Amino acid sequence: MSDRAVLDDDEQAAWRSFVEMRHLLDRHLVRHLQRESGLSDSDFEILVNLSESPEGRMRAFELGQATLWEKSRLSHHLSRMEKRGLVRREASDSRYPDVVLTDGGLSAIEKAAPANAARVREFFVDVLGPERLAVLREAADDVIAAIEAHLKDDCPPEVRGD
Which biological process annotations from GO are given for this protein (predicted)? Predict the structure, then answer.
């Protein structure tokens, strides 16, 4: 195995800390979201994307790209959200239906978002402060760019989800 395939102690410790932080923060936020609003993190992700899109609608294909979900997962989850009155699917002029935010979905995201944002501020933004937040954003952008380049250039299609 090459030296590049093995993490040294400092690299391993940094990676483990990052993974633990990400899991703990995500799970903590999700538990509060579910308890306070009855929304799952998947519901919230769909509602955020729709609420930020023009006219509260997106093509299902575009929503799948935004969430990085497989077609079947998105379809099943949208069906569950439709039954709860959070979204509806409408035929469009393309092959894919439009997913539309309902009044119930808009109300749900408007109620859930402020408490979620306050927790993100409490456990992430305020803990890091402006300087470290800027460094983290730059580092995250670099990691995202490296992954996007890998996906474009030499990632196997079955990993890319093609």
Answer: response to stress
Residue 104, C-beta contacts closer than 8 angstroms, at least 6 positions apart: 84, 85, 86
* 34: its two tokens: 């579910």
Q: What pLDDT digit, counting tens, does each position of 9-53 carry?
A: 999 999 999 999 999 999 999 999 999 999 999 999 999 999 999
Residue 160's alpha-carbon distances to 45, 144, 147, 152, in angstroms, are: 21, 14, 11, 9
Judged by phi (left if over 0) then psi (alpha if -120 to 50, else beta), residue 67 lies in alpha
- Please calculate the CA angle 14-19-21 and round it to the nearest 5 degrees: 95
Q: What is the tens place of the pLDDT at every residue in 103-132? A: 999 999 999 999 999 999 999 999 999 999
Alpha helix stretches (DSSP H) within 38-125? 41-51, 60-67, 71-83, 103-120
pTM (2 decimals)?
A: 0.86
Helices (H) and strands (E) in the chain, counts: 7, 3
